[in-house]
Write a structure and sequence with these properties.
Length: about 230
C-alpha cells in the first residue's frame, strides 16, 4: 500500500525575537513539522496494513526512519499519535472542501450547487492521494469505544459543517428547497464521497477520477438540485 502524502506545516519566528533566534526557531519548527509528517505517513500505512493494536511504536519509528525516542518526543503515546493523525488528516480534507467551494463561487462565479460539485471533486482528489487515511477514518466511525472518539466527532463535525454551510447558502438564495434537511443531506453527501471513493479505489481502480466525479455529479444534480422545468 502506498504512503500517504497529505500536505503542510511550518514554523514561524517569534515576534520581537532577534533575527538569528527567529531563524533558528523557524528552522526547528519546519524540521519538527517534517518529522511529524513522516510519523503520520508511517503510522497510517502500517495501521492500514495490520491494524492499530498490532502496530508498535518501534515499527512506526523504523518505517519513518527515526529513533523510537523521536516518536515519544513528538507524541506522548501511540494513542496520541493516532488521535493527532486523524485530526490532521480530516482537517486537511475539510480545508480542501472549503477551498474548492470558495473557488467555485467566488473565483469562477458558479452557483452553490456548483460549489457542492466542486467539493465532490476535491474530496475524490484528496481520498485518491490519502486512501489509507480515509479507510482508517471510515472504520473508526463505527467504533464508539475508542479514547479518541471525542476528537473524531469534532473533526467530523468540521468537515460536515463545511458542506452544511454551502447547503444553507443554497437554500438562502433559492437554489435549493427550504424543506431540505441540511444536517442529514450534508452527512449523506460527505458519506457518499467517502464510501464511493473507497469502493472506486478498491474495486474499480481502472476508472479515472474524472469518470467517477461525473457519475457522482449526475447523482448530485438529480437528487439534490431542484427539478428544472422541461
Amino acid at each position: 500500500m502506498r504512503t500517504e502524502h497529505p500536505r503542510r506545516h511550518g514554523g514561524g519566528a517569534t515576534s520581537g525575537a532577534a533575527p538569528g533566534h527567529g531563524a533558528r526557531e523557524a528552522g526547528h519548527g519546519l524540521r519538527r513539522g517534517a518529522t511529524r509528517r513522516k510519523l503520520f505517513d508511517a503510522a497510517v500505512t502500517l495501521i492500514a496494513e495490520q491494524g492499530f493494536s498490532s502496530t508498535t511504536v518501534d515499527e512506526i519509528a523504523e518505517r519513518a526512519g527515526v529513533a523510537k525516542g523521536t516518536v515519544y518526543y513528538n507524541f506522548a503515546s501511540k494513542n496520541v499519535l493516532y488521535e493527532e493523525l486523524l485530526r490532521d488528516g480530516i482537517d486537511l480534507l475539510a480545508t480542501s472542501l472549503q477551498e474548492a467551494a470558495d473557488r467555485a463561487v467566488r473565483a469562477e462565479g458558479g452557483t452553490r450547487v456548483d460549489a457542492l460539485d466542486a467539493m465532490i471533486r476535491a474530496g475524490l482528489d484528496f481520498i485518491a492521494g490519502s486512501p489509507s487515511l480515509t479507510q482508517l477514518y471510515v472504520a473508526e466511525l463505527w467504533r464508539t469505544n475508542r479514547v479518541w472518539q471525542p476528537t473524531l466527532q469534532s473533526v467530523r463535525g468540521r468537515a460536515v459543517a463545511v458542506v452544511e454551510s454551502v447547503l444553507r447558502d443554497a437554500v438562502a438564495v433559492g437554489e435549493l428547497s427550504e424543506e431540505l434537511d441540511i444536517p442529514l443531506t450534508a452527512s449523506a453527501l460527505l458519506g457518499m464521497v467517502l464510501v464511493a471513493a473507497l469502493d472506486w479505489l478498491s474495486f474499480q481502480p481502472h476508472r479515472s477520477v474524472e469518470d467517477v466525479h461525473a457519475s457522482l455529479s449526475r447523482l448530485l444534480q438529480g437528487r439534490v438540485s431542484p427539478m428544472r422545468p422541461k
